[in-house]
């Protein structure tokens, strides 16, 4: 029965050796995971992109010549009392649905008033 115990010893030795290899691999993976903490990209962020800069979103904003859309729309209303949103849109070369949003904000701020479909400046 010496052969049977020899086979068992070899099997036990092979299993112990494999467990040691797996332990070493586990330790390497845990170190790699610890190194990755704190440098993870946000969800949906493509590889190679970095975290947002300290100044904001990380995207450069284009400066619009002539002020904001709100300023431009207000100027059109002041120059053309009774102007309609579609007319403002064509003068500013933007879509009317965006003009409605801008004009709504101007109404809330008390800078323009709406009478029917026409916009009029509010005297300040």
Protein traits:
rod-shaped, Arc Repressor Mutant, subunit A, three-stranded antiparallel beta sheet, 4 helices, 3 strands, single chain, mainly alpha, 124 residues, 2 domains
Q: Low-confidence parts, pLDDT < 50 over ≥5 residues?
A: none
Number of strands: 3
Put simply, the count of helices is 4
Biggest sheet character: 3 strands, antiparallel
Strand content: 5-15%
* CATH homologous superfamily label of the largest domain: Winged helix-like DNA-binding domain superfamily/Winged helix DNA-binding domain
Global structural class: mainly alpha
Q: What is the terminal separation in angstroms? A: 108 Å
> What is the CA-based Rg, rounded?
35 Å
CATH hierarchy: architecture of the largest domain: Orthogonal Bundle
What strand order characterises the main sheet? 1-3-2
Bin the helical content.
40-55%
Give me the CATH fold name of the largest domain.
Answer: Arc Repressor Mutant, subunit A
- Overall geometry comes to rod-shaped
> What is the CATH class name of the largest domain?
Mainly Alpha
Average pLDDT taken over every residue? 83
Helix and strand pattern: HHEHHEE
Number of separate domains: 2
What is the topological layout?
Blueprint lengths: L1 H35 L32 H11 L3 E2 H8 L3 H13 L3 E4 L2 E4 L3
Antiparallel strand pairs: 1-3, 2-3
């Amino acid at each position: 029965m010496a052969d049977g115990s020899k086979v068992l010893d070899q099997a036990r030795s092979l299993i112990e050796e494999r467990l040691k290899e797996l332990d070493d691999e586990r330790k390497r993976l845990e170190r790699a995971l610890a190194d990755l903490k704190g440098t993870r990209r946000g969800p949906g962020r493509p590889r190679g992109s970095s975290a947002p800069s300290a100044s904001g979103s990380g995207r450069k904003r284009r400066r619009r010549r002539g002020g904001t859309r709100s300023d431009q729309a207000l100027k059109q209303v002041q120059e053309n009392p009774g102007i309609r949103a579609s007319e403002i849109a064509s003068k500013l070369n933007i879509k009317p649905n965006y003009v409605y949003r801008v004009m709504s904000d101007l109404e809330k701020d008390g800078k323009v008033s709406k009478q029917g479909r026409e916009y009029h400046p509010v005297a300040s």
